[in-house]
Amino acid sequence: MTAALEARALSKNFGALVVARDISLTLPQGARRGLIGPNGAGKTSLVNLITGVLKPSAGQVLLAGQDVTALSQEARARRGLARTFQINQLFRGLSVLENLCLAIGERTGACNNLFRPAGSKPQVIEEALEHLAAQGLVEDALKPVRELPYGRQRLLEIALALAQRPRVLLLDEPAAGVSSRESHLILDALERLDRDIAILIIEHDMDVIFRFAREITVLVAGAVLVEGPPEAIAADERVRAVYLGEEVRHGKRGG
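User: That's the sequence. What structure does it adopt?
Assistant: Structure tokens below.
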């Protein structure tokens, strides 16, 4: 079966600074893969290479078997690649519903008419409400985003990504900034994600990684150190030495 996403020998350097060294990664349909590593390991750089924010110095990115290395971020998104960001990209002055209508309108072309906003179209509103219902956000639909607790803003980000109807979803620290009492909201949202979507999640919260991921890739200094199922990663002496420490055996937060 053709992989949903392949990174083939991706490398990226800025002069003498190397942020990715010959990284290969394969996500089959429905994959649940975690990406971890110490600060500066190159995790976000890899996501930026996959999504087209950065152009690789060498290597390829394939979506559903098609080489998209030369394509823009927008073109990759149209082919089913979506992402969330470590720092949220929401329109804080708009309502929750308006944020989602804009995302759906961008995908469907409903935003192309300046004289008829996307949110004025019943089919856009209906789809937006479906996404909000899936994340438990319907009661917040008319609230300005800035009034939402941060954990619920993170849920909205996930809803926005899903509104793109992705085949591959890259989650860049979805639990970042979320309080411990709200972290269950993120875990519950991850559990509800469509099983057909291939997901790559970057996360410092080891509870999230070890509960969600079926495979984990560990990056160190821009290169893959090791990959495997969570139990193998937790037992790997090299991983503990460079990043996780003894806490990984208990599924606690790493550094």
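Residues 246-250 have pLDDT under 50 and may be disordered.
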